[in-house]
Amino acid sequence: MSNHNDAKKDKKLKKAERNAKKPAILFSFDGAVMDTEPAILATYRHVFAVHGKDILTPDNQEEIQRAPIMDVMKKYLPEEDPRRCAAEYDSYEQNHLIDLIQPMHGVRDFLIWLKKNNYKVGIVSARERSSVVELLRHTDLVTMFDVIIGSAGNLEDRADSILTACKLMDADTCIFITDSSHNIRAASSAGCFTIGIVSTGSRTLPMKESGADFLTKDFKEIKKLLEGEPLWLAYQVIQPEEKGKKKGRKADKKEDKPAEKKEKAEKQKKKTKNVKKEKAENKEIVEEEDEK
């Protein structure tokens, strides 16, 4: 009798897994979709040299190439206007090194497979959104993405941007693919199943320490993961407005002070505005590409 009941439970579980909604697939950009490392370092060398600085060393290269551009400019060129320096960076990269930036090995085939199998696919990046879109267009990849969010700076901003992307794609579950341990932490805090791309051995330990759920250097392995047991069903994206509902009556009993209420309302208003903005921007890209 017990074996019979177990078999029925297994059958029900497998059916539920088959009928489960597909997870959204989110990528960071640099090092996950595009191999930008050579261009990033060359561009920073140029900008630093223009300002009479020789800053890049083997010790700080990893930090510099993974940090948001504005943060790098503020830290290493504190006497300069960071916005002007960031503009110099973008201009030099786009005018001199854009052809050096190419898709990561295997990512194009993986994206084609994702779209063929009806996955919703997006990008959340610390880069300016316009830069991400320009590079995707240059390599004929822009139509592969349903949502593109840029300027996701610190850990909290990235987690919020990931949640925004999930909301735009109506996703209950999400798989986040990145080569950054910081992004792994942000995606984990948003409730995502996380995949770390380890293109070099030196990145394996930071990825493990950040708590990545799966490590690989091959997109074919990610495809196999998606075709196998749906491990991501154990993870669920929880939007901020849903957290109170999950807590039930206890959440209702606690009343915020007027100042806290105002602050929360402002934050929610800002997030709603950002969601609408991202929705409009992503709609523009789709319409432009359809016209072509």
Low-confidence stretches: 245-256
The helix content, as a percent range, equals 55-70%
Strand order of the largest sheet: 5-4-1-6-7-8
What structural class should be given to the helix and strand makeup? alpha/beta
Largest sheet: 6 strands, parallel
Taking the alpha carbons of the first and last residues, their distance comes to 62 Å
Strand content: 5-15%
Total strands: 8
Overall geometric form:
globular
Region (Disordered): 242-292
Biased composition (Basic and acidic residues): 252-266, 275-285
GO biological process, one term: DNA repair
GO molecular function, one term: phosphoglycolate phosphatase activity
Task: Jot down its keywords.
six-stranded parallel beta sheet; alpha/beta; 292 residues; two-stranded antiparallel sheet; 10% strand
What is shown here, in short?
Residues 252-266, 275-285 have a biased composition (Basic and acidic residues). This protein is of the alpha/beta class and 292 residues long.
Describe this structure in words.
The chain is an alpha/beta fold and 292 residues long. Helices cover 58% and strands 10% of the residues. It has 14 helices and eight strands. Strand 4, helix 7 and strand 5 (147-149) form a beta-alpha-beta unit. Helix 2 packs across helix 5 and helix 8 crosses helix 14. The longest helix is centred in the C-terminal third of the chain and has 34 residues, at 258-291. Mean pLDDT is 81; it is low at 245-256. Residues 242-292 are annotated as: Disordered. It comes from Grylomicrobium aquisgranensis. This is HAD family hydrolase. InterPro entries: HAD-like_hydrolase_sf, HAD-like_sf, HAD_2, HAD_sf, PGP-like_dom2.
